[in-house]
Amino acid sequence: MKYKGETFKAFCILLVLYIPCFTDCRQTKEVHDIIFTTKSLDTANFISPEDYPLYIIARDGNKYTNVEPFVRLPDYKNYKVIITTFSGGDIEPFDIHIVRSGVISRNSLNVTKYWSDLGDRGDYRKKYFEIYCDYTIRIDTEEREDGHTKRFTRFYRISDEGEFYKVDEEH
């Protein structure tokens, strides 16, 4: 099949737009490979649980309706991925969850942006996260405790069973 003029240019543009997501995003770390970050939470459209009901299975085995707002991310394979927030208190905690058959998994990644300990002596923890197009999740953490600051980065992926696992490779 021959492409002429504008049709060929449009085809090339589409091809270039889709190629980056087939790379290993941990290696390239290109801006166009990132689908969501900590900064995205500031402008994200949180969904009301009344508009999109999901369920939680508690440790006691009972099924409860989710009552917290959440951000829905693009699906990964056959799984829905959401970020929940729990309102109230001084800290606004955020967690990334996998949803299977309408049930929010308890296996989650905490990506709370900032919190400090009770009786604040200058101790704190900050997190910054990025989710890449191949669903590699990078979490940068900075912790200050007793005057010592520690920084580290961890990478996570989603298994075929819909659970988070830590990528062994250190970065």
Provide a quick synopsis of the model:
This protein is mainly beta. The chain contains 2 helices and 12 strands; from the N terminus they run H-H-E-E-E-E-E-E-E-E-E-E-E-E.
How would you describe this structure in keywords?
disordered N terminus; 43% strand; 6-stranded mixed sheet; 2 helices; single chain; 6-stranded antiparallel sheet
Could you explain how this protein is built, in words?
This protein is mostly beta strands and 171 residues long. The chain has helices at residues 5-18, 25-28; strands spanning 34-37, 55-57, 63-65, 70-76, 79-85, 94-100, 103-110, 114-116, 124-132, 137-145, 148-158, 164-166. Strands 1, 8, 9, 10, 11 and 12 form a six-stranded antiparallel beta sheet that branches. A six-stranded mixed beta sheet has the order 3-2-7-6-5-4, with no helix packed on it. The N and C termini lie far apart (45 Å). The model is unreliable at 1-26 (pLDDT under 50).
